[in-house]
Amino acid sequence: MNENYQKFLSYQERIAAYDMAFTLLNWDQTTAAPRGSSETTGHLLGVLSGEFYQIPTDPEYRKIVEELSHDETLAPDEKELIRKTARSQKQMAALPADVYAASIELGNRSTHAWEEAKKNNDFASFAPFLRDEIEMTKKIANYQNDTGMPIYDFILNQNEEGFTMEKLDAFFGMLRERIVPLLKSCEAKNGKIRTDFMKKKYPVDRQRTFNESLAKHIGFDLNRGLIAEYMHPFTTQLHLDDVRITTYYDENVFDSAIFSTIHEGGHAMFEQDRDRKYAFVPAAANSMGIHESQSRLNENMMGRSLSFWKPLYPKLQELFPENLSDVTLEEFWRAINRPQAGLIRCDADELTYCLHIMVRYEIEKKIFMEDYPVEKLPALWNQMYKDYLGIDVPDDAHGILQDVHWSDGLFGYFPSYALGNAIAAQLYHTMAKEIDIDGELEKGNAEAVHQWLCEKVHHKGGIMPVGEILQKVTGEDFNPQYYVDYMEKKFTALYEGLE
Amino acid sequence: MNENYQKFLSYQERIAAYDMAFTLLNWDQTTAAPRGSSETTGHLLGVLSGEFYQIPTDPEYRKIVEELSHDETLAPDEKELIRKTARSQKQMAALPADVYAASIELGNRSTHAWEEAKKNNDFASFAPFLRDEIEMTKKIANYQNDTGMPIYDFILNQNEEGFTMEKLDAFFGMLRERIVPLLKSCEAKNGKIRTDFMKKKYPVDRQRTFNESLAKHIGFDLNRGLIAEYMHPFTTQLHLDDVRITTYYDENVFDSAIFSTIHEGGHAMFEQDRDRKYAFVPAAANSMGIHESQSRLNENMMGRSLSFWKPLYPKLQELFPENLSDVTLEEFWRAINRPQAGLIRCDADELTYCLHIMVRYEIEKKIFMEDYPVEKLPALWNQMYKDYLGIDVPDDAHGILQDVHWSDGLFGYFPSYALGNAIAAQLYHTMAKEIDIDGELEKGNAEAVHQWLCEKVHHKGGIMPVGEILQKVTGEDFNPQYYVDYMEKKFTALYEGLE
Q1: Which of A113, A144, A175 finishes a domain?
Q2: A14 touches chain B (CB under 8 A)
Q3: Tens of pLDDT along B165-184?
Q4: DSSP A301-328
Q5: Which domain holds residue A59?
Q6: B208 at interface of A, judged by CB pairs closer than 8 A
Q7: Are A399 and A290 found together in one domain?
Q8: A213 close contact with B: CB closer than 8 A
């Protein structure tokens, strides 16, 4: 084997070894460690980060990657991995160390200021920090952007390669045109959907039993993964043989744990199913949009479908007879899909989720392309929530201050959440041509969906660019048409037969 | 501050940062990680160990320690820390790398062979490995022993500085003379101790409630530590602000979790209470005997005393009225102290524990000082169990094959378990002159005992040699007389008033 490439892999392996330790230390601080441990653990984590820092910045490593960038003997996925590594090394090298340090330091201060501002519903106190974060983002882009792209295109491209304003404008334009009216027509008919049983108490121990079997049902390998309990659901991994998700059980909101388990399970399976040839390259290091497509496809397209619940719902009824014995499968299905515009992105349902993202995309575009004044952003935010979601924002804590991202300089990141949905629909459309999805799900064979994703997406999906995966699997470039069609079809069917 | 010493501390800190990661990875593999993760985690752990290895073996580090060895400006505990570091560096350097590697490799093979031999009750299959381990231990001692000591003294001194055959012969001689007959006289009267309630069922959830409050009662800081459940009780630490113990709940053996919690809590408090000046030097890196004294003092001297249970027993009765409402405090106290010779060291009670150790000490002495033939060891073992514990060993699996230690080359290690008991008794004797132990415990103030230990032992006990601690705290050298006196007094009192 190529000696240089072998050396490259050994660097990747060393990086993966430290990442494993950092991931576990963070996981443990979140889920298990005693409260009083954080300061000393944080200090020693800093020491260990200092040890780690020498690896990615090793001049020998850069030299190897530089040489491999011109090595025509590499396989396509090897080339792709080298290209991405070279790109990030080049960008890191283009950024003066003091600017990098200042950006980290600003992120810490701004996040703290944001926490306070959100608590006190005081946007004015956060505004100077937001201004600084915007300036810092521009400054960094100035050092790193050698593409000739407009700044917001560059920022978007950093987060999701190939997805610039042209594509996103078309995508969000389509949503504005067809999803906004669809939501209005749904909400007008919502009164016909039965929801009484959703508000009953579902004891946590029985929810736990159901969720464990649900995770197995969708294909999450619990021999190489686990489910822990934590107030915010998330997925993390020590490596492809140890992928962990969290879920939160609330006896008053029983569907929350169900769909967060399927969602995080979708992320987790992507990591578990990766080609062992790239065991030490997490899929999460590639496109976030493709990763999100796997959680959304599992959670929404498959996990909220009637056919998925046909074999599972009787088991749920058996576990909670006091709440569900007089509720039909169709009533259950309608209730778990009932759309309702709300204030908070994190709590949004399938239909409204992308509208929340659209607001953030349009605001970011105005910030970077029109130098929109920071102090006027809350009013802009509130107006868009009125226009797209039809609701009034009562205060900034439930409006523009709700997300942490901007306080940490994460601009251009939100669109990936929406792209994930559209990519999922495009993949699901192709899948439906190749396997009988509903037939398999009705038989209780969710594994058929999992296997298709495994072969078509998970295997190489952590390495190849989104555009290439879509081309190879669906035969065309990114096309949000499938997503909008899927939503219209689904949310029309949801109300059919209701008088 | 001394610049060289500052550099030394920064090496210690880096070592502590890796240790934290290794400890957590091991803890997680034991208590939480999915089964299928072990191979990949093991591989990446190997990679990370390779990264770590460069620190303790750094020539610059050796040079600093060498220079500090002659630095008269250091404080006494700083000198002691440097002395120990220099000693282990010197010993490591004296051992050829290939011999070291061969010893690790032999340990892995032998441990595997021991597991099989124990399972199949087949000492003969393990004998060649045991012979190799003995030869390897001699070989290593030949490289490292520059003291002129006889080999077994050198081995003992490696485990517990200052404790050679002369001291241990006197110690175990005293045990043989006074504990062996004491055990016989106790067993003759055991029929008078009520034990019916010990065999009842104690539901695990209520045991858990009691044990959490018990851990707090003895002074284990749960803000900087935690209790997890695992089949073998042990203590581990990420650092002094994150010390973890495990316990195992068996509804049929309710006192097992209680005393293992107090035992491990004793270890844990020693780590939590260390001087922050040496935050990154675990107490466990110093004497194992002094560490064990803290677990034994808490578990036995304090934790099995009548005064300790006076305020706690009513709470236990309240939790388990169906089992304990007709059992008096004295009946409970007698039952948890009732001695009974058994086959297995790990299950041994307070009175018999050291006799198990005595067997191992005498056998090791014969191995290294008399070249006693390996094939004759089982017969020797069985004869000693008959002589000291009065019981017949039915097979080697329950005899000489019960412990893992020798298969991993751990000779000279067992005596520390016994020394821990004797050191504990010596400390407890002094403590009783300085505070009213029984009075405080009866008031429910176990914190008085904890505070005394904290100040006299825990603060510097992880740095200073055992002999020095004993001199400073008790005014004399190691003296096992206190231990034997304590046992005689306690096990005489236990049967008083029983007709």
Answers
A1: A144
A2: yes
A3: 999 999 999 999 999 999 99
A4: IITTSHHHHHHHHHHHHHH-HHHHTT--
A5: 3-144
A6: no
A7: yes
A8: no
Is A24 within 8 Å of B24 when comparing Cβ atoms? Answer: yes
The pLDDT of residue A285 is above 90:
no
Q: Are residues A278 and A403 in the same domain?
A: yes
Which of A7, A466, A20 is CA-nearest to residue A279? A20
Domain count, chain B: 2
> pLDDT (tens digit, 9 = 90+) per residue, B48-91?
999 998 898 899 999 999 999 999 999 999 999 999 999 999 99
* Continuous segment of H or E residues that includes residue A458: none
Phi, psi dihedrals of residue A33, rounded to the nearest 5°: -60, 150
Question: Does residue B150 belong to any structural domain of this protein?
Answer: no
From the candidates A264, A292, A362, A440, which is the catalytic residue?
A: A264
Q: Are residues B127 and B190 in the same domain?
A: no
Are both A284 and A177 inside the same structural domain?
A: yes
Question: Residue B154: CB partners within 8 Å, gap ≥ 6?
Answer: B141, B144, B145, B147
Tokens of A299: 């959670």
- Return the residue of B nearest to A37 by Cα: B241
CATH number at residue A408: 1.10.1370.30
Q: Of A193, A177, A474, which is closest to residue A354 (Cα–Cα)? A: A177
Of A33, A40, A238, nearest to B41 by CB-CB distance is A238
B3 is catalytic: no
Shortest distance, CA B10 to any CA of chain A (angstroms): 9
- Please write the tens of the pLDDT for every residue from B365-419: 999 999 999 999 999 999 999 999 999 999 999 999 999 999 999 999 999 999 9
Nearest to B242 among A37, A239, A240 (CB): A37
CB contact under 8 A, B32 and A36: no
- Lookup result for tokens 């709940």: B249
**B30–chain A nearest CA distance, Å:** 14
Task: Please check whether residue A230 touches B, CB under 8 A.
Answer: no
Chain B touched by A15 (CB under 8 Å):
no
Choose the mutation target among A47, A212, A236 for the interface with B, i.e. most B CBs under 10 Å: A47
Does a structural domain hold residue B460? yes
Give me A355's structure tokens: 């509208």
